[in-house]
């Protein structure tokens, strides 16, 4: 599959490039990204280089792992450098034949870009394209997170994910099995909260 751009008035989603290696390396030193995502720890520059120049293009070529950099909005002319990377969002597709294919979506955001709704905008844009019959035509989208990652759950909730349960030992993280939340989104679901925010949870 050839990479493509998704955009709204608030964000531009495009493929990470070699120009982003140092930025990815710097952002992945963030404590929250290290704690809650699957990036290597400690995170070295060679990890960023392999991610941008190896993992990302291989994923697009296979059509199984589609990764976008979250950037400020605006058109980019051929030969121009992309705007500074603010975060990352991606879809991991399973191998179920169409029209029953599913994908897990995930994301992370630069500390200085959090709290502005940009990662929610990006996640909604990717999910919309994934579930759209004119897009990827997925039958469902799935979200998973380590229990306690309320920032991720808040984004998923705003996008319309219904949390289906808390599963013991769902995720392997930093060499340990941890409890995880799992939720889903179907094509006919609204892309806005579909259930109340959990009582007693941090404010949404």
TrEMBL record:
It holds the Pfam family Acetyltransf_3. It comes from the Bacteria. GO terms for molecular function: protein N-terminal-serine acetyltransferase activity; protein-N-terminal-alanine acetyltransferase activity. The keyword Transferase applies. PROSITE patterns: GNAT. The keyword Disulfide bond does not apply. GO terms for cellular component: cytoplasm. Keywords: Transferase. InterPro entries: Acyl_CoA_acyltransferase, GNAT_dom, Ribosomal_N-acetyltransferase. Residues 11-187 form the N-acetyltransferase domain. This is N-acetyltransferase. It comes from Xylanimonas protaetiae.
